[in-house]
Predict the 3D structure of the following.
Amino acid sequence: MNSAENTSSSNILSIKNLNKIYNNGFHALNNICFDVKRGEFLVIIGLSGSGKSTLLRCINRLHDPSSGEILFNGVDVTQLKGQKLRELRKQAAMIFQHFNLIPRYSVLSNVLMGRLSSTSTLASLFSQFSAKDKKQALEYLRLVGIEEKASLRVDQLSGGQQQRVAIARALSQNPKILLADEPVASLDPATCHTVMDYLKKVNQELNITVICNLHFLSLVKQYATRVIALRKGEIVYQGHPSEITPEWFTKIYGEEAREVHVN
Amino acid sequence: MKTYNFFSIKAIFFDAINFAVVGSILTVAILHPTEEQLLSLHRNALVFLIFFIVGSGLSSILISCCYGKKQSEIKKIISSRYKTLGAHLFESPKYKLNHSTHSFFSTVWGWQLLLTLVLVFITGAIQTHFSFGELFDPQGLNSASQLFRQIASPDWSILPIAVLKVIETIFIAFMATVLAIPIAFFLAFLSAKNIMKHPLAFAFYGLMRTFLNIIRSIEPIIWAIIFSVWVGIGSFSGMLALMIHSVASLTKQYSEIVESVNEGPIEGIQSTGANLIQTIWFAIVPQVVLPYISFTIYRWDINVRMATIIGFAGGGGIGTLLNQYSMRAMWPQVGCLIVVIAAVVWFMDMASAYLRESLK
């Protein structure tokens, strides 16, 4: 009992026997089990369709898992509804491959979207965010280095800048964990590193646990503190990034795969 | 069953109706029934039904000829000429038969199409009493040219009242559109598939769609008659009639825009822990607002034209005036009204096109 409590306090997330079967019968996740410790930078790798995105979306319940448990801070979140579900999403912020910002809004307005769950519905409909929220939003924009763009429309920014706005939006939720779904997959190699560096900064300076889906093994080795590899909805590798040998690489990506370096 | 049942139901149904229509036309042509016989709905429906059943039988035989089990490629090509028009229209890409080897007059579907078109055209000409004799009858031509001459010399003395009434018409259309906007805005979300995902909500969505389709299929002129009994003849009843129709039309157009929004921002806003209303307001509304305005301006434009027609059924505005003058055969006055209406419609058309262009 005591030891169980100890492990749960060092684990921010604990996933047990997680399954996801889509309505069309596709078995996207098959008996996934793993723990995430506080402060980790966990990277999930695997081919497209291996279940990485589904896994992240099950954690913040954008998708509903079919069976299994997801313990977030010791509480099973798989059955949450209403206000409690929104509270979970607030604490488990997410950024996306295509940023998912509101194109016609300003950078600052987009960052303030992170405060929606903490603002009353009526006040938010009239965009009445508190002065404190605005100040904090600007601070997060400074953290990701685009404070001077705050009043620009977000669709005027480059891809890398938009992803930094998305990070600032996620941070303004004051999350405990940050889920990043292929955050650099639609960016050019140079911008890739900028965005990854900011994620690392968020992880180390703000002590926010990061779970990140990635394609490139070279990025994994540079940023991850731990790696999980998925193949066809199952975990095929778990461990330190430096331990990924060429044998493991072919096992994860298949026989014909060849490693690509991003510099 | 067999491998072709993916599309065969639709195809057989089409062929059966086709056969029943052609059969009924031929029956009338051959038997020359009396007026009384034509009015006996029960018996005629039975005849139609019999043709329908025979047609579906024929169609299913021909379709199984084409798509049933075959051994050789050459047999497939030979039998594909027996394909019916229904099969040709509705065949699934999975079982697409190679029909380029036959010219269309050596196929069943080709003759079926030709026969149907010819028969339907002849029936149409008879039904509409089409007659060149009447069109070029000297007496008719003479009175038509007199009428044109009178309309072409408009009586400008009624211009003040015409302008006053056309302003009324524009405002009937304006109020109908403006009052329809908030109702349609609200209903659009309830009739959008991507919002109403929950099973219970989806049932409500189906109900909404059916209800709106019924409302929309009732022409505004009928609504005008209903409302002129309800609130009395005049511009108020015309406005209400147009409003009902606008609500139904705008809801359908708005909901189609909602259904085509980009899912990304929705996911983005949801992931922040926002509730349903916040998600709609911040992720969907910004995406739909410009197309909404564009459709709404176009609806106003349409409503101005419709308001004129509705005037004939007691809806007020310039339509009522036009109705009065034409009933009394006051053609020069009618001419003046036509000029005013044409000018306003032309102007509204241009203005709405310019406005919508600027919103892109």
